[in-house]
Amino acid sequence: MTNRMLAVVIAGHGDVETLELREVTRPEARADRVRVRVHAAALNRADLLQRRGLYPAPPGAPADIPGLEFAGEVDQIGDEVQRWRAGQRVFGITSGGAQAEYVVVPENHVAEIPAGLDWPEAAAVPEVFITAHDALFAQATLQAGEALLVHAAGSGVGTAAIQLGRAAGATVYGTARTSEKLAKARSLGLKDGCTVTEDAQAFVEAVQQWTGGRGVDVLLDLVGAAYGEANIASLAPLGRLVFVGTMGGTRASFDLGQIMRKRLRLMGTVLRTRTAEEKALAVARFARHVVPLLATGALRPIIDSIYRAEDVRQAHRRLESNASFGKVVLIFD
C-alpha cells in the first residue's frame, strides 16, 4: 500500500488560485491517535483566512493543509487506542489537515456517526455543532424559556445554533443579510428574524418589539465589531453575549455603564486553538448531548453545496460569496 495521499494544499497566500490538490505523505497513527480515511470534509471561514495568510495553523497542525472537520472511517489505530477499531464511521475536529484523504487525530476528538447520516451530512456537523453547543450551553448557560438571538442565521454555526436553541426550549430569533436566508431559517426553528445590511440599529428595534422591550437573554455573535453597541442594547438584564466570529471586524466600542447597569456577561470563544484536553471535553459533550438528537432527526446538518476535492477553488468562492446557507462540503471519494 502506498504511503501517499491527496490533500488540498495552500501553495501560497492570496486568492483561490493558491489552492492545489497535491499528492503528499500520508500520516501514521501512533500512541492514542487514530487515522481516519476521510470521505468528506467541510469548509469553514478559518480556511479562507488561512489561505489569505491571516489565520496560521497552530503549532502541531499542518501549516499548508486546511480543514477543521471531517467524516470517514477509522483506518489505523495507535497502540494506546481503546475506544475505536478499524472500519468504524466517525466524525470529528482537528486544528488543520482535514481536507485530505487521511487525517490523524487523538482518539477522544472523534465521535461515532449516527446511522442516518451520509458522508457529506456527517462532515457538515462537527465544527459548527460543537462550536454552537459549547457557546450556548457551556459558555452562556442557555436555559429553557429564555430568548436567544443568533447573528448570521444562515451560516453553519447559525443554522446549528438555531436548532440547538429550539431543542433546548429557548425562543430563537435571528439576523441575516437577506430575507431568503431568514425564510429558510424559520424551517429550523427560528421564530422571527430581521435583515441587517448597513444599519445595526434595525435589529435593536426588532428585538425590542419581539421581547416587549426586555431584550434577549443570550446573543450569539458571528459578526463582531460592526454590531458592538447594538448587541449591548439588545441584551436583557443579566444577558450573556458570546463572540464566535469576527466577519465585521475585531475592534468595537461599548458603553460600559450599560454593561454594568444590566450586569451583562461578555465572553469570547474559539475551538481551533484550545488545548487537546479542552477539545476532548467539548467533543464528549457533543457526543452525549448532540449526537443522540442527530440520530433521531431532531437536529440535522444543513448543506449548501457539495464539491469534489479537485474543485476546492469553486468551493472557496462559494463560501466567500456570502450567498451560502449552511455548509459547503468537499468529498474525497
In short:
The protein is of the alpha/beta class. The chain is built from eleven helices and 15 strands. Helix 3 (126-139) packs across helix 4.
CATH structural architecture of the largest domain: Alpha-Beta Complex
CATH topology of the largest domain: Quinone Oxidoreductase, Chain A, domain 1
Termini separation comes to: 17 Å
**What is the N-to-C succession of helices and strands?**
EEEHEEEEHHEHEHEHEHEHEHHEHE
What's the helix count? 11
Broad CATH class of the largest domain: Alpha Beta
Number of domains: 2
Mean pLDDT: 94
Relative strand content: 25-35%
Structural class: alpha/beta
Describe the structure.
This protein is an alpha/beta fold and 333 residues long. The chain folds into 2 domains: 4-125 and 272-331, Medium-chain alcohol dehydrogenases, catalytic domain (Quinone Oxidoreductase, Chain A, domain 1, Alpha-Beta Complex), CATH 3.90.180.10; 128-268, Rossmann fold (3-Layer(aba) Sandwich). It contains 11 helices and 15 strands. The strands form 3 sheets. Strands 3, 4, 5, 6, 7, 14 and 15 form a 7-stranded mixed β-sheet that branches. It has a 6-stranded parallel β-sheet with strand order 10-9-8-11-12-13, with helices on both faces. The mean pLDDT is 94.
